[in-house]
Amino acid sequence: MSDVTGTGDEVVIHLNHVGKHYVRGGEIVPVLADIHFDILRGDFLALMGPSGSGKSTLLNLIAGLDQPSSGQVIIDGVDIGELDDTALADWRAANIGFIFQFYNLMPVLSALENVELPLQLTNLPARERRERALTALELVGLGDRVKHYPSELSGGQLQRVAIARAIVSDPTLLVADEPTGDLDRKSGEEVLALMQRLNETLGKTIIMVTHDQKAADAAHAVRHLEKGELSALVINQR
Amino acid sequence: MLALILRCALRNPLRHRLRTTLTVAGIVVAILAFGLLRTVVSAWYAGADAASDKRLITRNAISLAFSMPLAYAERIRGVEGVTGVSWANWFGGIYIDARNFFPQSAVDAETYFSLYPEFVLPEEQLTAFRRDRRGAVAGAKLAARYGWKVGDVIPIKGTIYPGNYEFVLRGIYHGARSSTDENQFLFQWEFLNERIKQLSMARVNQIGVFLVGIDEPSHAAAVSKRIDETFRNSLAETLTETEKAFQLSFVAMTGTIVNAIQLVSYVIILIIMAVMANTMAMSARERTREYATLKALGFRGWVVASLIYAESMAIALVAGGIGIAATGPAARFVGSKLDAIFPIFNVSPGTIQQQWAAALVIGITSALIPARRAVRVKIIDGLRQVL
């Protein structure tokens, strides 16, 4: 299964016949089978499918959190299966922005400190780190919440802080795992609108796993996963 | 990065205030108890530590219970390397009640204080003591304990030397150093000798120990040997040793108790180590997803481990600091209750160092397993963690 999605002309993600299985109790449990497709820079792709279909596994492979059992995951020309743990950690820090369903913010750090986290891995001086984190928070509309701790923010605000953290280091790719799954309708719509804005105005490439059709409608295109196999691409009309 | 680690180390313990408070309280008590027990051990050795290396003790070679003739004093004085000789007899009397224990010795008034310059006695009090056959000198702590003043009459009932004795306090000495024993009660050996004449002529002019001043500490072994050879094959052969060795021989008699106290002090640290390790294990387990997130963002395993170590160290060192700060006042309180047994009950710098070391060990070892687990957990497993 191979095709190209998106509006750009430069391939940023190339999945080359990727397969993934786990071994449980001595038995091989297949999760993904022969996944083969490309994503262009600036695309916004939604991955949908029932629970256990393998969509989160696929997202983890693309994000460099897991290694494929077969095939290659090539991001921006780098076969991430060839990287050892240390190199992979450095690669993730430079190339991937994560948006999790439950935000995964550090409760003991303020919004500003949370957003600044990925920049701790760079050589930027403290003042520039702070300025960039402030800019990212202002971009997501939370310039007035910089000193607030996660316990003092609403669900929607937490997810926006998480998005600010994901974009602060200007990564190649944003991966979002059920970003609206823990939010009410209004907050969910705000987060999706923000992601669309990041995609359209900043040209961020986004891959989003979701159960929610409304969330999927915010993407350029949708792919369905069923029992580890990928369906044809569905282009959204926006 | 260091600032981030320190920030998290100081804030993370406050997430479960009750748990942290209880853990800190446990460590404070453990470090305090450890410090007090180490101080008890130090107090046991205080006499030996305070001993002068320019003094020897000569006693009967058979046992301390056997005496030596007074005539030995002149012969010891003639031994090469000896600069001064004095003597003392252990009295062991009862002041009002047997519970009021304090060391009492009959000493030679003319020579004793020149051999013990650490017992600082005003000149006029020393003169008064020497002039009065019933005169006595008490240490400042002992005098304070019973409210004695110079001129007071102190009745003591003899046990080794039966009878009722009345002494007149002629002086109160102070220690030249904080380690000097200020609980001694000293009176004139001549007075005791006169009383003995009324009890048993066989015990007249008999000495418990000779106190021998020497010219050089390095000559101690040679002078000891010369003294003992002087009395070889005599009726009362002698055993001469340094004052420190003499004191340590008393400690050795209670060696098992000292060992038991030392063992208990280490067991306390082991127990609190287990409690603290449990706290850190629970904390780290609850934060598995946070650590996985950090690793997903690109932080290395050592950063995650550092967060756990720093938090563990912060708790242990803060609690250790409180425990150490409390040890001084607690030791003063305990010391005031036990001053009859332990005249010197000071928290030594060595004990404080050991307390800091114990706190450090608690902090490090408690973080070992949680940190190892956090580093090893796979990111995707950690992110799935639901508590």
Main features:
heterodimer; A: 238 residues; alpha/beta; Rossmann fold; 7-stranded mixed beta sheet; 12 strands; globular; B: 387 residues; alpha+beta; two-stranded antiparallel sheet; 15 helices
Characterize the structure shown.
The complex is a heterodimer of chains A (238) and B (387). Chain A has helices at residues 55-62, 85-95, 111-116, 126-139, 155-167, 185-201, 213-217; strands at residues 4-5, 11-24, 27-40, 44-48, 70-75, 78-79, 96-99, 173-177, 205-209, 221-226, 229-230, 234-235. Chain A has 238 residues and is an alpha/beta fold. Chain A has a single domain (4-235), classed as Rossmann fold (3-Layer(aba) Sandwich), CATH 3.40.50. In chain A, a hairpin with a 2-residue loop joins strand 2 and strand 3 (27-40). Chain B is an alpha+beta fold. Chain B has helices spanning 2-11, 17-44, 46-50, 72-77, 112-115, 123-131, 140-146, 189-199, 220-230, 243-253, 255-286, 288-297, 301-337, 349-376, 379-384, and strands spanning 55-60, 68-69, 82-90, 104-107, 119-120, 135-139, 153-158, 163-175, 185-188, 206-207, 209-214, 238-242. In chain B, strands 1, 3, 4, 5, 6, 7, 8, 9, 11 and 12 form a ten-stranded mixed beta sheet that branches. Chain B has a two-stranded antiparallel sheet with strand order 2-10. In chain B, strand 7 (153-158) and strand 8 (163-175) form a beta hairpin. The model of chain B has no long low-confidence stretch (mean pLDDT 92). The chains are: A alpha/beta (238), B alpha+beta (387). Chain A binds chain B through residues 60, 63, 65-66, 86, 89-94, 98, 100, 102, 104, 106-109, 113, 117-118, 120-121, 165, and chain B through 1, 4, 7-8, 11-12, 14-15, 289-290, 293-300, 379-380, 383.
